[in-house]
From TrEMBL:
Pfam families: TetR_C_33 (PF13305), TetR_N (PF00440). Keywords: DNA-binding, Transcription, Transcription regulation. The keyword Transcription regulation applies. Residues 74-93 bind DNA. Residues 51-111 form the HTH tetR-type domain. The keyword Transcription regulation applies. GO terms for molecular function: DNA-binding transcription factor activity; transcription cis-regulatory region binding. This is TetR family transcriptional regulator.
């Protein structure tokens, strides 16, 4: 478990170790104020019954997402699908937004697990591993388009994601930064994009993903890597989005290979040189 608490190592060595842990899926981003205890395993009959109902609620809500989309999600509809009174559902989930939050956390964790598993098990270098990660995330999105749309599509009007969603959301970023740091450590990170002054470009709290609680302690080279990581993230989400939402109709003949070129081209700007078939 990673913690953003200072230790005796230099920021640079700590950063390299943390990002390697992210890539292997061994690290989980936490802050010094977060509780890191593992979820409680149901032990009593009452707890197990509650967990079973929650599982059924989430399954019914996911089915509603697939049929109607996130904007139309309602507790009344989910209760009706389960044959429950709507008042009974409120004993488990206090609001539609709370249910939506549970689904969002579950979905971020799912795609994060996909990325971490590929990064952890790949025998390739950082560049080719990134292509493998991107391909795996694309397969997940094509298989579960409504899950992808829930976290990366049009925001649900009136919904404001709570802080609970942050840690699951940054699992993907952890993989990306870990791969970039691995490439930098191996001496193969060669950005084609312009050099720049990183000052003032990234929100200070975003550097927590790189293991820094105090932005003033972030070295410029680490800051540049963190900022450039957004290129990999946005190219991945963007490439999948245009395919899922029909913008490649009569544009891409072989969509898998078309996707690979998009990912490789963006990665080259950041400094990862991907070899394509």
């Amino acid at each position: 478990m990673l913690s953003l608490v200072s230790d005796a190592r230099t920021p640079w060595s700590r950063k390299q170790e943390q990002c390697s842990q992210f890539r292997r899926g061994e690290g989980t981003l936490t802050t010094v104020t977060e509780q890191t205890a593992a979820p409680r395993v149901p032990t009593t009959a009452r707890d197990r019954a509650r967990a079973e109902v929650m599982s059924e609620l989430l399954a019914a809500a996911r089915a509603r997402l697939e049929s109607e989309g996130s904007a139309a999600l309602s507790l009344r509809a989910v209760a009706r699908d389960l044959g429950m009174a709507s008042s009974a559902v409120y004993r488990y989930v206090p609001s539609r937004d709370a249910l939506l939050t549970l689904l969002i956390i579950e979905t971020y964790d799912a795609v994060g697990e996909v990325a971490e598993t590929v990064a952890r098990t790949s025998d390739a270098g950082p560049a080719q591993t990134w292509l493998e990660v991107a391909r795996a995330v694309r397969r997940w999105a094509l298989d579960q388009p409504y899950s992808f749309e829930l976290i990366y599509g049009t925001p649900v009007r009136g919904y404001r994601a709570p802080d609970d969603t942050v840690r699951p959301a940054v699992r993907m970023w952890g993989v990306i930064i870990g791969l970039l740091m691995d490439a930098d450590r191996d001496g193969v990170l060669d950005p084609a994009g312009p050099d720049f002054d990183p000052a003032g470009r990234m929100a200070p709290e975003a550097f927590a993903t790189a293991g820094y609680t105090d932005p003033a302690t972030v070295p410029d080279d680490v800051a540049r890597i963190a900022i450039r990581s957004a290129t990999l993230f946005t190219s991945l989400v963007g490439a999948i989005s245009v395919e899922l939402f029909g913008h490649l109709h009569r544009v891409a003949e072989d969509r898998s290979r078309f996707f690979d070129v998009t990912i490789a081209t963006a990665a080259a700007g950041v400094g990862l040189r991907i070899t394509l078939d």
